[in-house]
Amino acid sequence: MLPLAPSLRPSLERDFVPAALWNRAYRALVDADPGSRPFALALRAPGGAVSRYDSRVLGSNHPRATLTLLYAERLLKFLLWQRGGCHVSVGGADEVARHLAAVYAPSGARAFDHAFMGERTYRDPFRVEACPLAELPAEMVAALPVGRHLDGCRIGFDLGGSDRKAAAVIDVGWYIRRRSRGTPISSRIRRIISRASTIHSPGRRAIYRGWTRSAAAPPAST
Asked: Does the pLDDT at position 221 exceed 90?
């Protein structure tokens, strides 16, 4: 491990290592290594979007080269959940690509991420592959138009720490909201959908709050 001295340590987890301090120490080790090499991860999603992250890692013959495996695994985990993607190309370190492919495999330590970021989210198999650094795709962010259309049906819910809130909207003017504690969110969503479909009438618009109908003009703050 890297020598770290956090100024504050959680009383319930004395061995906790802040990622920011670990990454800072690892980068300092890389900067001092004459054999360090460029390294990059490219995350692709169906449709052509590419997210690329460039960095540097220790040389493969460095006495502490195994730290690179931890660095790359934590980096990939963060990028998957920050940016998304199901096809991961690893450039600059083939041994790291092999390690990540084993960790992010159906039977690996990150089997959940493999399934979630693959078939469950993108409906495409998740895979990790080595790629020559020069052939790694460039960043390409897909622009998605914002429709600004206000008709249709929407469901929103908030799993808060103290309570849970759910809302259903039909054609903007029809609004159902419920807030409570202890009730499963799935049951609440089913109830508000049922309620919204019962009261919805295409020829009229009203705002509903806490199941109480108000045909008057909506209040200033909603």
From this structure: no
